[in-house]
Write a structure and sequence with these properties.
The complex is a heterotrimer.
Chain A (H helix, E strand, L loop, with lengths): L8 H9 L3 H35 L2 E2 L7 E2 L3 H8 L1 H35 L3 H15 L2 H11 L5 H8 L16 H27 L2 H9 L4 H12 L1 H16 L3 H6 L11 H11 L3 H25 L6
Antiparallel strand pairs in A: 1-2
Helix pairs in contact in A: 2-14, 3-4, 3-14, 4-8, 4-10, 4-11, 5-8, 8-11, 11-14, 13-14
Chain B lengths: L4 H29 L19 H9 L2 H33 L4 H12 L3 H15 L6 H24 L3 H9 L4 H12 L1 H16 L3 H6 L8 H12 L3 H32 L5
Helix pairs in contact in B: 1-12, 2-12, 3-6, 3-9, 4-6, 6-9, 9-12, 11-12
Chain C lengths: L11 H13 L24 E8 L4 H12 L3 E8 L1 H12 L7 E3 L4 H5 L7 H7 L13 E2 L9 E2 L2 E13 H6 L9 H13 L18 H11 L3 H7 L10 H15 L12 H9 L5 E5 L3 H7 L4 E4 L12 E9 L7 H13 L1 H11 L19 H15 L2 E2 L9 H14 L5 H17 L1
Parallel strand pairs in C: 1-2, 1-3, 9-10
Antiparallel strand pairs in C: 3-9, 4-5, 6-7, 6-8, 6-9
Helix pairs in contact in C: 2-14, 8-10, 10-17, 13-14, 16-17
Classes of the chains: A mainly alpha, B mainly alpha, C alpha/beta.
């Protein structure tokens, strides 16, 4: 991903000075290419990011004056269970949104590669990718209906004789979060599968050929060849899904709205309520900063692990 | 090629099982949508008298024409601009390797990790100050900014793998940087651009939080943003809600079915090599 | 999302206090508005006017009233935007302080907006139209004092109607468990609940999903008023100094509710039931009783014609007065609205025009309020509306109406009542803990 080949600044400056005029012009033109993207990104992402940090140290209702609050907002988040709980809920969601889709995606993609090179594989990729293209809000509504007491899931359970297990999944303290997680798996599995399978098709078939001549089983092939060579794709998958988990909003908003009893409340929902219902902009921003730090803390090591070797 | 029979069939069974699980929810809401309005049908009962009129009714009450127009406008504004500027930036970072490109790339990659929810609050106040709050621009501009990290990263991944010989040959023939980009590299970048464009179109269409916070009028929002309001109105009427949901997801599904070959093959060629 | 409805009530005590203060200090009015003659009354004029309005999705009443208003005043057209209540709660501060502030907006909460100067002060209009002379203490619920407490001070909103909550019942099933007339005491009501449970009927249908807000707040508040006094509850809602919800009598009420939950009187999936689902299921015969408000009358009549009845929550002591949550459907005018005169004229028209009042009663199911001496519109025989209107008179005479405990602060419902009551359903919270947790959240919010 990013090569960690650090050049000391002094060296860079001396190189800049020693360049010819033509080279300078090239550099300016090159930067002009990058400028529009950088500008949009700076104004609509980096600036709000900096403002979030700033707001988080103030008490502000969004309309009146801002008063300095120091680290009070952060302290409040750590002290109030319903706020702190959002963070642990987010990490529990990671298991469902990230760990399961990536692992399952790897298995499915390698199975696809081995046993379904033709039409079946193509159909499977299309079908598995479908949930990825509908709005998450729709996924929430669809599953809200499937997971309701008269819904499909309980119908199936009754059919196979597990009547005692039927419940209103999204209203159950023990099951609401896993149920939300299930929606996440349904949405993200196809994305991971297709991305990983794409990566696999890039790998040199000779590798697999020789492994198969040696009589390697699917599992050996998987562990020895597929996973190590797909480090980068796996990294991308994990990153995307972890962010989807930690920053979840849409699915939770329409399926449970954080209930029952805050058991599915995630930072995104709580930021929204704090900022726009309660007008506690400082507190909402502090939670937003914590969310962003959380994502960085989780994602950076993943990036490090999956970093490409210098080409 | 020696694959055991058991593995072959086991693998196929797994794929077919997963496909069934993926597709079942769609079938369930489709069947539910055909039941008489106001009833609470089971999850998978084919109605004795399919009520196709539910779709017409849902089309009316969901204000579909206005929603389609609004969403289309937003997509047509976001995608081309995002594609153009991210391709240029990806070219500068990945191929020209301008000085500071490592730092630039790092800056963009940092954005990959920023959740929308983390910046939505200041974005709201920022847009109020800019005077674009509650217009469609309020959705368009931040989305372009928010897509930049992924888009630049994606395009850079393509350009970084372009052999430098191509450019060197063109340079010898006296091509300017712009000419190099426009005539040689852009045609070669079609595949990753196409898949990126489709991805961004789908993401935009499905955008919820930004629409919810930055635009008050549901008919000026994206499809997904309006679905919430629709749900509030018809939660009692499960068949009608299902019909409305199907109508709202239909455009993206059709787009995907139509472009799936390009999308999946584009994903193939433009696969992220970082 | 009804339960969020900002329905402000005034208790007799508060009203008396207001009257006393007014009597003692006749020269210190908050803002003495100049009384205008009839001819100078604000109106919509004759020029074309477009009223910019925000209504709540899922309730027909304001839309019907708007249509009829344009019928009678063709120069007035409407630009109505609607959204779900949850979204409306979130957007109100933004809308009021935005570039195109609404002429009419459904107000989920009021105090903070009044304090921030985002809402139009309606005192002058009240004087011009003579709203102050209306009989029911209709206006005081929408007054905000300079100290930020509600119940007295300047007027910042008007009710499109005045609704009432209580207990609806399925007549067939009630007869099945031997209920010949509505219970007179809490004990009698609890006997009926037990009888329903024994007869394998669902005793109470109620909603509880966080998406709608927790419907158990309705029975809880009814129990509070049944076993204890009403005034402390209103004081708490109006944010009077040192008010607390964590009182001894409220603890008794919460213990009753916890007992009901443990006895299985509510549907097992209550934490996943949305407001609209609960009503649909009650209409289909699931549930002997349901705690709700008269805004639901028309659809109950449609779902179960002739089979739905209504009574007020009975008192714990025999011979006591029944109490009820009852409040205006509150709408306000933005401080910088373009057409405040026309919006105020609309308020006046809703309460005094015959057709508007009829729409309010037949579709809204609620008392339209308005000046004294106006006839109540006639209602269909056998409609449950007759029962709610009659019950409204009882509560009005007893002076035992309350605002809704979910309206104490802008977030007490989403962050306090809803999660804690859901925990109670899940067996993770008891009566004492519930009140303690909600009071802590209340103090936390007021301290901000």
């Amino acid at each position: 991903m990013i090569t960690s080949n650090k050049r000391p600044a002094s060296l860079a400056i001396s190189r800049w000075v020693s360049r010819s005029k033509a080279a300078h012009r090239e550099i300016v033109i090159g930067w002009l290419f990058a400028l529009p993207a950088l500008l949009m990104y700076a104004v609509f992402v980096l600036l709000p990011f900096v403002l979030s940090i700033r707001y988080s140290f103030y008490r502000w209702n969004g309309i009146g004056d801002m008063t300095w609050a120091g680290i009070d907002n952060y302290r409040t988040i750590l002290e109030v269970p319903s706020l702190l709980g959002t963070i642990s809920n987010a990490f529990r969601l990671v298991v469902y949104f990230s760990f399961i889709p990536v692992t399952l995606g790897l298995v499915v993609a390698s199975v696809m590669q081995r046993v379904a090179p033709g039409r079946l594989g193509a159909t499977a990729r299309t079908v598995l990718f479908l949930p990825q293209v509908i709005p998450l809000v729709a996924a929430g509504i669809i599953w809200g209906w499937l997971l309701a007491l008269p819904g499909l899931i309980n119908q199936i359970l009754k059919l196979v004789g597990f009547e005692s297990y039927t419940r209103a999944w999204l209203g159950d303290f023990d099951w609401a979060l896993p149920a939300v997680g299930l929606i996440g798996i349904w949405v993200l599995l196809g994305f991971c599968t297709v991305l990983l399978w794409t990566g696999m098709t890039r790998l040199d078939p000779a590798l697999y050929e020789s492994a198969r001549i040696d009589g390697a089983s699917w599992f050996t092939e998987f562990i020895k060849i597929t996973v190590p060579l797909l480090k980068h794709e796996i990294g991308v998958c994990v990153t995307v899904t972890v962010i989807a988990a930690l920053a979840a909003f849409d699915i939770v908003y329409v399926s449970t709205a954080g209930g029952p009893g805050n058991s599915t409340a995630v930072p995104g929902i709580q930021i929204y309520i704090l900022a726009f219902t309660q007008q506690r902009i400082g507190l909402a921003s502090a939670l937003a900063v914590m969310l962003m730090v959380m994502v960085l803390v989780v994602v950076l090591p993943i990036q490090r692990l999956s970093r490409e070797t210098a080409q | 090629m020696t694959i055991a029979r058991s593995e072959l069939w086991g693998g196929r069974a797994l794929l077919i099982g997963l496909m069934t699980i993926t597709i079942l929810p769609f079938i369930s809401i489709f069947m539910t949508a055909l039941h008489p309005s106001g009833t609470v049908p089971g999850g998978l009962d084919w109605p004795s008298d399919p009520q196709w009129g539910n779709f017409v009714e849902a089309f009316k009450v969901a204000e579909m024409p206005a929603l389609l127009a609004s969403s289309t406008f937003i997509v047509l504004a976001v995608v081309p601009i995002s594609l153009a500027i991210s391709t240029m930036a990806g070219f500068a970072i990945g191929h020209l390797r301008i000085p500071g490109s490592r730092m630039l790339l790092f800056l963009f990659v940092f954005g990959l990790t920023l959740p929308f929810g983390g910046i939505i609050v200041p974005l709201y106040y920022l847009e109020r100050d800019m005077g674009i709050y509650n217009t469609r621009l309020a959705i368009v501009l931040p989305l372009i900014g928010l897509y930049m990290p992924f888009a630049v990263f994606w395009m850079r991944a393509h350009f970084v793998n372009m052999p430098t010989e191509i450019s060197e040959a063109a340079r010898v023939d006296g091509a300017t940087t712009w000419g190099l980009f426009w005539r040689i590299h852009l045609p070669l970048a079609r595949a990753p651009m196409l898949s990126l464009g489709i991805l961004m179109a789908v993401w935009t269409w499905n955008q919820f939080l930004i629409a919810l916070v930055l635009v008050e009028d549901p008919t000026q929002r994206t499809m997904a943003g309006a679905l919430g309001a629709f749900q509030g109105h018809y939660a009692t009427d499960v068949p009608l809600l299902c019909a409305g949901t199907i109508l709202i997801v239909l455009p993206t599904l059709v787009l995907f079915i139509l472009f799936q070959r390009q999308m999946i093959s584009a994903l193939l060629q433009g696969s992220v090599k970082g | 999302m009804i339960m969020f409805k900002k329905r402000k009530l005034i208790s007799t005590a508060t009203m008396l206090a207001v009257l006393l203060i007014a009597a003692q200090m006749p020269f210190v009015a908050v803002q003495a508005p100049a009384v205008m003659a009839q001819s100078e009354q604000p109106s919509c004029g004759t020029e074309p006017v477009t009223l910019n309005a925000y209504f709540e999705t899922g309730f027909d009443i304001p839309f019907e009233l708007a249509d009829e208003f344009t019928n009678q005043y063709p120069n007035v057209t409407w630009d109505i935007k609607q959204d779900q209540f949850a979204n409306l709660i979130n957007s109100t501060p933004r809308l009021l302080s935005g570039d195109n502030p609404p002429d009419l907006i459904r107000l989920p909460t009021m105090v903070s907006f009044a304090e921030q100067g985002l809402l139009m002060n309606l005192d002058d209009y009240a004087a011009a139209f003579g709203w102050d002379e209306w009989p029911v203490p209709q206006l005081n619920q929408n007054r905000v004092g300079e100290d930020g407490t509600r119940g007295s001070g300047s007027l910042y909103a008007m009710g499109l109607n005045y609704s009432l909550t209580g207990i609806y019942y399925n007549k067939e099933q009630a007869a099945q468990i031997g209920m010949t007339e509505p219970p007179a005491t809490l004990a009698e009501f609890e006997d009926l609940l037990a009888a329903a449970k024994d007869a394998d009927l669902l005793p109470i249908m109620q909603w509880g999903s966080a998406k709608s807000g927790m419907g158990l707040a309705f029975p809880l508040q009814a129990l509070m008023a049944s076993v204890g006094p009403v005034d402390p509850i209103n004081d708490w809602i109006f944010q009077k100094a040192d008010a607390t919800i964590d009182t001894e009598s409220n603890l008794v009420a919460a213990e009753h509710l916890q007992q009901w939950i443990e006895n299985g009187y509510f549907p097992p999936d209550i934490n996943a039931i949305e407001y609209t689902d609960a009503n649909a299921r009650f209409g289909q015969g699931e549930g002997v009783f349901m705690f709700n408000g008269d805004w639901q009358n028309a659809s109950y009549d449609t779902d179960m014609p002739g089979n739905v009845g209504f009574f007020l929550m009975p008192p714990a002591e025999a011979g006591g007065s029944p109490a009820a949550m009852s409040a205006p459907l509150t709408y306000g005018i933005a401080a910088n609205a373009e057409n405040p005169d026309c919006a105020a004229f609309f308020f006046n028209w809703v309460a005094s025009n015959d057709v508007a009042r009829e729409i309010n009663v037949t579709i809204g199911g609620s008392n339209p309020g308005g000046p004294s001496g106006l006839e109540m519109p006639a209602v269909t025989e056998g409609s449950v509306i007759n029962e709610t209107l009659a019950a409204g008179v009882v509560v009005g005479e007893a002076g035992t109406s309350m605002d809704f405990i979910a309206n104490a602060t802008s977030a007490i419902f989403a962050q306090g009542w809803t999660p804690e009551l859901q925990k109670m359903v899940g067996g993770r919270q008891d009566a004492a803990g519930l009140l303690e947790a909600v009071q802590a959240e209340y103090e936390l919010e007021l301290a901000e």
